[in-house]
Amino acid sequence: MNEHWKERYARQIMLPEVGIDGQKALSEASVLVVGVGGLGSPLSLYLCAAGVGRLGLIDADVVSESNLQRQVLYTEAEVGQPKVECAARTLARHNSSCVIDTYPCFLTRENAEEIISRYDIVADGCDNFATRYLIDDLCARLGKPYVYGSIMGLRGQVSVFNGGRARRYQDLYSDRAELEARPKAAAGVMGPTPAVVGSMEAAEAIKIITGCGTPLYNRLYSIDLATMESTLLDL
After folding, report:
1. Is there a contact between 173 and 179 (Cβ–Cβ < 8 Å)?
2. What does the pLDDT average to over 123-131?
3. Would you tell me how many other CB atoms lie within 10 Å of the CB of residue 173?
4. Strand order in the sheet with 54-58
5. Which residue of 16, 131, 156, 198 could cross-link 39, Cys pair, CB 3.0 to 4.6 Å?
6. Domain count for the chain
7. CATH number at residue 177
């Protein structure tokens, strides 16, 4: 480890739960972030800043003005540009040692296995049920941890599925046919809501990689920012 590396991650390395070994594990790890919008922005920023060695970013959308209220990866000057390209530029400025793969497409049944198989962990930044069930299917088949997060308004949820040791997303939401058939619809959201939930997802991925703490396997964490009430349920 060079001195620059020690200095950059000094505050993280001094944590006994992480240390040198944990930081090395982060540098060798890879995480796929599915969707780089409201959740994917803080999620990818904190993983990159923490020193995760390789990030995959998959999203087919372009930056729109309505994104800027909560999607902190982007600026006004980037409206109309592909999200993954803008996100990659921003993340590279944060940490030039992080390798960033970009996929300017949606995750589909045709490409999901090929893409997901390249990464150690899949982190959920998407906004629809069909994609989450697809991630769940592939992570279960490939034995990958699936870090789940979702938001609505001022509320959010976080959990970790699969990984060969945990329950699945479809166990939490068993009415799959009905939910997959629902059309995608815009909903109101307060900007800090995805910031909180996406940051928690990043923490879960870091915990899995470094072995620190207790990841949310078989548990569901929920928070309501309107009241600051939270619950932790066994699944």
Report:
1. yes
2. 93
3. 16
4. 99-103, 54-58, 30-34, 121-124, 145-152, 155-162, 219-224, 229-234
5. 198
6. 1
7. 3.40.50.720
CA distances from 175 to 60, 73, 133, 151, 170 (A): 27, 34, 11, 19, 8
pLDDT of residue 1: 62
Report which DSSP code applies to 183: P
Distance CA 195, CA 224 (A): 13
pLDDT digits (tens, 9 = 90+) for 212-233: 999 999 999 999 999 999 999 9
Q: What is the mean pLDDT of residues 2-9?
A: 81
pLDDT band at 185 (very low <50, low <70, confident <90, very high): low
pLDDT of 163 above 80: no
Count of Cβ atoms closer than 10 Å to residue 80 Cβ: 9
Q: Hey, how many other C-beta atoms are within 10 angstroms of the C-beta on 182?
A: 10
Structure tokens at 89: 């530029």
Structure tokens at 59: 């999203």
Helices 40-50 and 192-210, packing angle to 10 deg: 40
Q: How far apart are CA 25 and CA 178, in angstroms?
A: 40
| Domain coverage including residue 17 | 3-234
Do the Cβ atoms of 43 and 125 come closer than 8 Å?
A: yes
